[in-house]
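Structure first, sequence second, as always.
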């Protein structure tokens, strides 16, 4: 999620970072939920739970002594780690949970012997979609990726409109505190766990269960061709590096590999790579050009969604939307149609989502939305990319993701920066496919909500409401459900 800048933070940069050279390497996993933690070749890997219908990526981590497991949305668009207090308003109120989703894992400061209060009421974070959280800044031991970080400053939310804490891994210039502090990425380096502030992100495709973030490393089996780097752009006004903004040079629709469309951009635009944002947000003019190509109906100001025909999943099977960064030889990421046409609305129509009149019957939603002034490449883009973030050298390297990869070859990111290594030559073919054709694919898993009883439908709605989406979508879908009489305000 894109955190709004904390004004107080802009003037004062962190000078002299607090170095706590404490390595708790002996720490083991806190139970079955933490099985996904590994250390490989000097890099720490944290598996992420991919919530299929396009929700966020949750990392299972733990806070405190003894460790209290918490599920946090992994977010490159913000910089604070924060957790929900067991007594947070959201977690105590059924009404709030109807609105924002069932309260996920919480943390009880009284149950941790290493809890330390840093700044009472000092934590206030607001995201671009108007969601947010407030409470104290605290410090405690943070358990992640098979290691633990002592005295990490984290927010402890007493009031929240998000049902899960977040793990912001952006630049520390963007923390929500009045006084900048070293965040988790800084402490990884300060505590000697990784060489420089760098990590790579592999979300894998829409149907995959997990993705991986590797702190301090890259995995050359997870991408195709060579990693290519571009500069991170500083904030235009403040000149501070505060977000993962890079220049998008061209955007083309390519039908089959032969015919290449024209560039849909009038000029290079800065785009932010934001894992905490579900969809992709482009300038309205550009979005409209894409909608034209797919006969998409933009209802983002009403129900909050852009609709397309699910038929595109078969008729445009070989079409990709191609994003190129930093010139003709820069990284090129192709998004296949099945990562951007989302079969996730039928269940909501069944329980009262009022869609506009549409020129097609089989209704899907589209993973690109219009937005003015700030452009975000969220999960619908990121799933097709392997992205390496180097905060120390202000570089981002990208390559096409090798989806469903089961092999691994981890290389450390040393002080010389991202190794511009080559990955695999071509997309790995899933080993189970024995017939060379696609006839069998008619049964591929999609994110269609399961139609069943109204009760379970309401539960699903609740969980979707909890997911990161634009506030517009949230309110609109909710109002649709209220209209349908499923929720009483
Ligand atoms: C914040 O949450 C507390 C309970 O944790 C509640 O008493 C208070 O009214 C909430 N404040 C706001 C502004 O919602
Ligand atoms: C705190 O610890 C007590 C005693 O072990 C336990 O009963 C309680 O459920 C814990 N509270 C939370 C919110 O985890
Ligand atoms: C793309 O190729 C498929 C066969 O793989 C074909 O059915 C389809 O018509 C082609 N689309 C275009 C726009 O050429
Ligand atoms: C990855 O696996 C899923 C099934 O788990 C499949 O639907 C998808 O098409 C696969 N992607 C690629 C690129 O092979
Ligand atoms: C619907 O849900 C039930 C129970 O959760 C499951 O057994 C069934 O396979 C699901 N159907 C589909 C089409 O996903
Ligand atoms: C569809 C899906 O994967 N849903 C999962 C989303 O995440 C929650 C919490 O981790 C799971 O309980 C759901 O099963």
């Amino acid at each position: 999620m894109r955190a709004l800048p904390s004004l107080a933070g802009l003037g004062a940069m962190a000078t002299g970072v607090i170095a706590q050279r404490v390595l708790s390497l002996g720490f083991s996993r806190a139970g079955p939920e933490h099985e996904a933690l590994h250390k490989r070749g000097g890099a720490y890997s944290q598996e992420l739970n991919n919530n299929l219908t396009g929700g966020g990526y949750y990392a299972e981590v733990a806070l405190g002594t003894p460790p209290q497991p918490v599920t946090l949305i992994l977010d490159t668009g913000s910089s604070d780690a924060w957790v929900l207090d067991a007594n947070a308003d959201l977690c105590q109120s059924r009404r709030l949970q109807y609105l924002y989703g069932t309260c996920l894992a919480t943390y009880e400061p009284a149950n941790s012997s290493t809890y330390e209060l840093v700044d009472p009421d000092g934590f206030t974070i607001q995201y671009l979609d108007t969601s947010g959280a407030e409470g104290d800044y605290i410090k405690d031991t943070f358990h992640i990726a098979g290691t633990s970080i002592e005295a990490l400053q984290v927010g402890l939310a007493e009031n929240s409109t998000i049902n899960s804490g977040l793990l912001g891994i952006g630049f520390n210039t963007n923390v929500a505190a009045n006084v900048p502090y070293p965040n988790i990425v800084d402490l990884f380096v300060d505590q000697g766990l990784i060489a420089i502030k760098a990590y790579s992100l592999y979300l894998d495709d829409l149907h995959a269960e997990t993705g991986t973030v590797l702190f301090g490393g890259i995995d050359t089996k997870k991408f195709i061709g060579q990693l290519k780097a571009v500069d991170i752009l500083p904030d235009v006004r403040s000149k501070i590096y505060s977000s993962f903004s890079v220049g998008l040079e061209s955007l083309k629709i390519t039908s089959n590999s032969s015919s290449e469309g024209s560039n849909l951009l009038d000029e290079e635009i800065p785009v932010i790579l934001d894992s905490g944002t579900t969809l992709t947000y482009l300038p309205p003019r550009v979005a409209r050009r894409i909608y034209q190509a797919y006969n998409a109906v933009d209802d983002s100001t009403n129900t909050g969604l852009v609709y397309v025909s699910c038929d595109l999943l078969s008729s445009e099977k070989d079409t990709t939307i191609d994003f190129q960064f930093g010139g003709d030889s820069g990284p090129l990421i192709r998004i296949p149609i099945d990562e951007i046409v989302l079969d996730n609305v039928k269940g909501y129509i069944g329980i009262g989502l009022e869609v506009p009149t549409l020129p097609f019957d089989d209704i899907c939603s589209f993973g690109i939305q219009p937005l003015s002034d700030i452009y975000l490449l969220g999960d619908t883009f990121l799933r097709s990319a392997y992205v390496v973030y180097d905060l120390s050298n202000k570089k981002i390297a990208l390559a096409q993701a090798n989806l469903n990869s089961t092999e691994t070859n981890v290389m450390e990111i040393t002080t010389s920066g991202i190794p511009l290594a080559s990955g695999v030559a071509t997309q790995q073919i899933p080993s189970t496919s024995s017939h060379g054709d696609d006839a069998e694919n008619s049964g591929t898993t999609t994110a269609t909500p399961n139609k069943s009883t109204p009760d379970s439908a309401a539960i699903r709605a609740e969980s979707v409401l909890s997911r990161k989406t634009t506030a517009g979508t949230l309110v609109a879908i909710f109002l649709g459900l209220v209209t349908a009489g499923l929720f009483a305000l």
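Margin note: Confidence is low (pLDDT under 50) at residues 5-54, 433-489.
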